[in-house]
From TrEMBL:
Belongs to the asaB hydroxylase/desaturase family. This is GA4 desaturase. Residues 149-170 are annotated as: Disordered. InterPro entries: AsaB-like (IPR044053). NCBIfam families: CmcJ_NvfI_EfuI (NF041278). GO terms for molecular function: oxidoreductase activity.
């Protein structure tokens, strides 16, 4: 294992005129090949991320509204940075709703999912938004959290040798349904932050995801999968040949994470790396064990979906929203088929991580909600 490295650097550019705050971020040492985690949904152990850096965080405030985003000069955009941020209050941000309302799956289905779909259509111009999962993060970081045993899937036999109590039919329906509600099971506790810079999917991982993650996601992506499989059967590269403008028969598609806090963020904020400051050789592929949900036989099969970690390079520029509030929303690119031909290795995906702030260790746990979705044009 490489020894920890600690450095500081100065950003080449900033998205805000305010003085950057310093945050602690952990990279994979250059040349090191990390071991995959034994836990479902989890990245490799924190010990693999031994290149510890104290880096400036460029504050994105003030944020534009959705309507003003396209015209906002010097503000992060999906097409350039791989992420964006907007002010977007929703129904649940207003009375009579409160923080507890964001933990009620029925209210999220009734209000938040359609509000977010409308927002994404305005920002991206997509024609359809398919919400696949909502993740509630409300715990202090631990190496293995509620994700590991979600919906009755894998468990660590060393730390949890006894089988867990079977979840109720209602709980199981939420955990394996579409969208899947993750971190909402009170007996399991909430999901914890992820203090490990990563992109959830490589292009190959994104394609595995729409085929394997949930049977209803696969159905929703049927036209995409059919067009891609036809090209593969002809021995053609998807990167070079899957483009709707070239009449391949399949639509442009993208995976996004929509991230917002349930209360002002005082610790473990989310930071995002401007994809223009990354080079292809910075990325390190890793397999992530992921449950296969929605199977008719109720099986607890898993699949391997490839994501990316990264090694440090001077000039990496990290961005955040200082003391982020519930109406301040991050839209994070995970993959975009429309950016694949000319884009870098991550094809619209950008590194992101929770980040440690000095002096904030005693603050209460961050509470945040992540909505993951497939957008189709």
């Amino acid at each position: 294992m490489s020894s920890a490295i600690t450095t500081s650097t100065t950003p080449q550019t900033t998205l805000s005129a305010s003085k950057p705050v310093m945050g602690t971020l952990r990279y994979i040492p250059a040349g090191h090949i990390p071991e995959k985690s034994p836990h479902n949904y989890h990245l490799p152990a924190i010990s693999e991320f031994s290149d510890v850096r104290h880096l400036p965080l460029c504050n994105m405030l003030p944020l534009p509204s959705v309507a003003d985003l396209a015209a906002a000069e010097n503000h992060a955009q999906l097409s350039t940075h791989g992420f964006t941020a907007v002010t977007h209050p929703t129904t649940l941000n207003c009375p009579p709703y409160d923080v507890s309302s964001w933990k009620d799956p029925s209210l999220l289905a009734q209000h938040y999912i359609p509000d977010t779909a409308a927002m994404l259509k305005c920002i991206t111009g997509c024609s359809a938004v398919i919400t696949e999962a909502l993740l509630l993060r409300s715990a202090i970081w631990t190496e293995s959290d509620a994700l590991a045993t979600h919906a009755g899937h894998g468990r660590d036999t060393e730390t949890d040798p006894e089988p867990q109590t079977d979840p109720s039919a209602e709980t199981l329906s939420l955990e394996t349904g579409f969208p899947a509600f993750i971190g909402f099971n009170a007996s399991q506790g909430g999901v914890s932050p992820a203090p490990k810079p990563h992109v959830d999917y490589s292009p190959a991982g994104a394609r595995t995801h729409i085929r394997e993650y949930h049977s209803k996601l696969t159905s929703a992506a049927a036209s995409i999968i059919a067009a891609e499989d036809a090209l593969l059967a002809e021995g053609k590269s998807l990167k070079e040949n899957y483009h709707p403008t070239d009449s391949t028969g399949g639509p442009r598609w993208a995976l996004y994470s929509i991230w917002r806090p349930l209360k002002p963020v005082r610790r473990d904020p989310l930071a995002l790396l401007d994809q223009r400051t990354l080079k292809d050789e910075d990325f390190i592929p890793v397999n992530i064990t992921t449950p296969c949900l929605g199977r008719e036989d109720g099986s607890t099969e898993t699949h391997e979906a490839e994501g990316y970690l990264a090694s440090y390079r001077e000039g990496h520029e990290w961005n955040w929203i200082e003391d982020q509030k519930p109406e301040e929303v991050l839209v994070i690119g995970l993959f975009d088929s429309g950016m694949e031909r000319e884009g870098g290795v991550a094809s619209g995906g950008t590194l992101h991580s929770s980040v440690e702030l000095e002096g904030r260790e005693g603050e209460e746990a961050r509470e945040s909600l992540e909505l993951r979705c497939l957008c189709v044009w």
